[in-house]
## 1
Amino acid sequence: EKLYHRRDRSDVQHFDSHQAQIITDEHAAELFLSRYGFIKNSGPDGDGDDPEGASQAFISALEEFQRVSGLPVTGQFDEATKEAMNKPRCGVPDKEMDWNAATEPESGPSGGSTSAR
Amino acid sequence: RRKRHLAGLMSKTRPRRGLSEHGYMAFSKKLLKWRLIGEGYSSQLAVEEQRYIFRLAFRMWSEVSPLEFVEDTRSPLEDVEIRLGFGTGKHLGCNQRFDGTGQEFAHAWFLGDIHFDDDEHFTAPNAGSGISLLKVAVHEIGHVLGLPHIYREGSIMQPSYLPQESGFEVGWMDRKAIQRLYGGCKGRFSTVFDWIRKERTPYGEVVIRFNTYFMRDSWYWLYENRNNRTRYGDPVTLQAGWHGLPREGVDAHVHVWSRTKDIVYFFKGTQFWRYDSEKDRVFGQDPEGHRYPRPISEGFPGVIGPVDTAFYDRRDSHIYFFKNSLVFAFNAEANRLARGFPKNIRDLFPAVERGDHPNGNIDAAYFSYTHSTVFLLKGTRFWRVVNSRQRRRRLSLPRNGLLPHKEVEEQWFDICNVHPTALKL
């Protein structure tokens, strides 16, 4: 029996609702940073031919996220950063995204019609 | 290479709809329609509650910008500028899936679509738990209007949700941000005045308080001088706050306040009312036995209504009535028109800077206790009357001289209309 204790039903957990994937590791963090515009032009898996550059991009994106979120700028995926990334938030990107890049994958079928209006 | 070249051209030629620091003016229209999409109702709140919260959210942006919003449930959808809806996971044909409970709770697209993740626990304002739908709605509407995320404490446009503070309002920073895109609020006023009241403190002392009021036809705003903004939730209708005054508004307010008199009058057309500041309503019959409204010519012989505006000058205990280009000075103690009046407004209130003068037909003559001076308002401008302190410093200033005009919106901020359908929220 679904129990209702509060008039506004706020105490009832939606058992059947899906849960957003908690961000626990650097890979998920990189997805987050890419999605909200902190990492530009390359997806988390990138094209793999410049691991050094990708990790530097990840660190600087992490630092930028920490800065705008008012966190200590450590460049590390620390607990405070993890907690901030898992807060409820708006889905609009934080940083100006290069629409063309965002809509036109570097690799993929030629033609890239997604950017044509 | 050709494709890349074209893409480069496009990014240069069309305005970048990305999120530059100040955002962009998303709409050139001042009246915007919105609708909660039928198939996008939330499963958590009653539909009426959802619509009420969105109406309030739109009103809150209207209170601080020249934009007005009206809910439109009839027009073809393509005529509705802002469309809101709830969904979970893959929703409303949107290509950005929601992630379930936690993290992303809503997003907005610059073409006017706002989606809310119905897996989140959205609650009504001040519920004290869950995620306030009002706060999220105000945030997402900010995006649709062109505002980016603002990483400042107190801004509603911060990307992460802050638990509900009681009494959430659009803060100063966000007001400036939206006005940077759409400009400030302009408009003519019927009258402006400081309303003085005597109150008794818990210790039985009588203290005198005042508040500043701006009236525009049948609406009014209380202006908080200390906070440089109007009271939260204003404008309200005249009927709601000034009982017994004509529904369509007044021409003038006069407070005769001297050693022997403390009387508040309102004027409209050819009639006037006396206001009972204690009971906060107009007198039906005042202690002297006069029944209201009364003809102006009866109470103020020599003055013919309607008047443009009026104010009481405590320095000489005269009421100055303004009508077209004439000024009638009325001796409130002797109860008669002062000798030599009416006079031309240009003679009585000369321009300090040649040519910078309202030339009559003013909207309001307002003595401000905050500024200890009189202002003459007309249209979107005001002229400050030279006061005695200024004349002591600059002897060349004429008595009652009008200093060069300024814009009302540069001195009194955020006196913004809302759409009539949002007035009663």
Note: The two ends of chain B are 57 Å apart (CA to CA).
## 2
Amino acid sequence: YPGVHVKDEL
Amino acid sequence: MNIFRFAGDLSHVFAIIILLLKIWKTRSCAGISGKSQILFAVVYLTRYLDLFTTYVSLYNSVMKVLFLATSGATVYLMYVKFKATYDHNHDSFRIEFLLIPCALLSLVINHDFTVMEVLWTFSIYLESVAILPQLFLVSKTGEAESITSHYLFALGSYRALYLLNWVYRYMVESHYDLIAIFAGVVQTILYCDFFYLYITKVLKGKKLQLPA
């Protein structure tokens, strides 16, 4: 689901 | 984690260390915009709230704490410890002109209308323009010390390297985040003029002086 973004960056 | 992302992070950490060392060794923050430093502190505070909610990796958490701590230390050095050396008169950029549009934009264009997501979006937008008070200060004084130029070059390179990281991730992992990409492009464009001066002047041993 594109609304949930994986925030694995800084 | 790919090489572009890692190089970007290293460049970012390098920039912060250069700045802290400059202030500490010279006991002065002359030529540095306190307003940009406050904006960066706001950027990290609003983005890294997820330290308490999501765990990505030890690397991620350590870097987040590092950015929070070092930006807090920079603001402390500028506004408390070496306050007397702060170039108050030249650092006259009105930060509300950046804060308010970024806040409004993050309320309108975001991935999800939740507090955490809007704050994250706000921090991404704000980071893209947070260097403007610093560039404004350089343009007002017409020059920058070499060490300040190295700081700006490392800081600008960081997001440019992230752009390469996003191209790589899109191709290899089909991963992309339009908000981050858009803001990253804006952020990198803002440095272009500076990059040009850095390469044509500072790297040739000359001081960064703007043409009159």
Note: Chain B has a mean pLDDT of 96.
